[in-house]
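Lay summary. Proteins are chains of building blocks that fold into shapes, and those shapes determine what they do. In this project we predict the shape from the chain. Here is one chain we studied, written as its sequence of building blocks.
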Amino acid sequence: MIILSIDKVKTYFKQFNMEDKVMEFPVSSATVAEAAQALHCEEAHIAKTMSFKLDDKAILVVMAGDVRIDNRKFKEKFHKKATMLKGDEVEALTGFPIGGVCPFASKDGVKVYLDESLKRFEKVYPACGSRNSAIELTIPELEKYSQAVEWIDISKN
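And here is the predicted shape, written in a compact code that computers can read:
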């Protein structure tokens, strides 16, 4: 039996009575632009989850939809060059398909970091394990439910 990634995320949120907050769309929300259109919000409010390879493991960095990785800051923080997971590695290492990677219920050992770029917003919208899902969370909720290791500053506008 194949368990869909979105079902894994909904099951995760069930422990917090939040599973009904997971939204599924009839259109793709796989990119920041698509997610903003589906949610009728600014791209900046999309909490995109970027997947990087660090010592043969995946790490996830959640950042605002309008910022990019600053390679110098990434290297200062992690002492390695920023290397995104390759297409065939994403689902294998994170448990989620490309376009649905999220900071909830990922594979064991995957660490989640939250970028400071998110702190300027009251609410943000991360994906929920599929290419057409999201959840509206406050920043404290994102911090709690993502079980993030720490807040980091590795983005540039």
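What the prediction tells us: DSSP finds five helices and ten strands in the chain.
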